[in-house]
Amino acid sequence: MRWAIMAASMAMAVPAFGDDIEEIKPLSVEQATELVATTKDALFLDRGTILTPETAEILARHEGMLYLREIDSLTPELAEALAKHSGRINFEVSTLTKEAAEALAKHKGSLVISGLTTLSEGVAEALAKSEGSVGLLSLETLSLEDAETLSKLKDGLVLPSLLTLSPEVAEALAKHEDTLTLGECPDLSPEVAEALAKHDGRLRIKYQKSLTDQAAAALAKHRGGLDLDLGTLTPGAALALAKYEGRIDFSGLKTLCDEAASALAKHRGELNLGHLETLSAEAAEMLRSNPEIRLPEKFR
Model's pTM, two decimal places? Predict the structure, then answer.
């Protein structure tokens, strides 16, 4: 039986005019136990679900991913109980205290936190001690001090929603030694790209609409693997990235002009163009000449 705690069962129903509002009750021990026993994959708790440390500890026994939507208050006691879960946990919270973050940092798996647009004092320091990867999916601003702190994280760091990225913050994040994932950088200047190129691990830039030739030339100095989710790739940027010494994944690229294809065909190392949808016969032939380039089946 597929389970989810839905608004109709655990949160308040929408009352008719004049009706009393149904009281929101915490998830019971019996309900939590049954959820764990009957859910085989990811376990989702819908908005409005109220947890206690006791029920959270039961849910932590679930072997799949936990997805907790809109937690009203993630207390240190609740975080301590959930941290006993061995798999990935997705939280949706609007605030996170230092004490709750310290408890979460004891978690052995991945932590994915959405809803949090800023970090309170001490939260970055606490999360940096996590043993698994940390994703701050809604974080919009990041101070230089917090960037320096988060760079000490031993596993992957995911920051896809930063509104701005200065060269100083980029250089601080580049000290991170595992996979670093960033979102679209509207201000991806050559200076920012130069700073990010100092990163030694895998560098992933998601949702990037375009890349200037100068920024591409700076990123080409990076070592450790590039994943560029680009909307378009100019011939100049392709020529610069063709000099990259390592694997490149163009995860969002749907089309490629002949000039860009000619440049990429000269790349030495693995190159993934597996998401291409349109390509001229001439471009396909040039790319097929390089056995290390991965193409969709229809272009092979």
Answer: 0.88
Sequence-distant (6+) residues with CB within 8 A of 20 are none
Report how far residue 230's alpha carbon sits from residue 238's, in angstroms, rounded to the nearest whole number.
12
pLDDT digits (tens, 9 = 90+) for 275-292: 999 999 999 999 999 999
d(CA 179, CA 223): 12
Q: Phi/psi of residue 248, each to 5°?
A: -125, 130
133-176 tens-digit pLDDT:
999 999 999 999 999 999 999 999 999 999 999 999 999 999 99
CATH architecture of the domain covering 164-300: Alpha-Beta Horseshoe (3.80)
3-state DSSP of the chain = CCCCECCCCCCCCCCCCCCCCCCCCCCCHHHHHHHHHHCCCCEEECCCCCCCHHHHHHHCCCCCCEEECCCCCCCHHHHHHHCCCCCCEEEECCCCCHHHHHHHCCCCCCEEEECCCCCCCCHHHHHCCCCCCEEECCCCCCCHHHHHHHCCCCCCEEECCCCCCCHHHHHHHCCCCCCEEECCCCCCCHHHHHHHCCCCCCEEEEEECCCCHHHHHHHCCCCCCEEEEECCCCHHHHHHHCCCCCCEECCCCCECCHHHHHHHCCCCCCEECCCCCECCHHHHHHHHCCCCEECCHHHC
How far is Cα 112 from Cα 128, in angstroms, rounded to an integer? 13
- In angstroms, the CA 136 to CA 101 distance is 12
> Domain residue spans in the chain?
1-11+20-143, 164-300
